[in-house]
Amino acid sequence: MASSAWSEKILHLLRRMNNFYSAGSCRSSCFKFEIDGVQVGWIPSHVASLITRHTDVFLPPQEGAVSLCPRLDCYERRSEAVNEVLQTLRQESSLTCLKGWRDEKYSVKPRFSDLPLMWMERAATSLFGVKRYGVHVNGYTVSDSRKVSMWLARRSITKQTYPGLLDNMVAGGLAAGVGIKHTLIKECEEEACIPADIAVKAHPVSTVSYTYEDEEGVFAESQFVFDLELPLDFKPCIGDGEVEKFYLLPIEKVKELLATDDFKPNSAMVILDFLIRHSFIEPDTEPYYQELVTGLHQTL
Question: What does the pLDDT look like over 72-82, one tens digit per residue?
Answer without folding.
Answer: 999 999 999 99
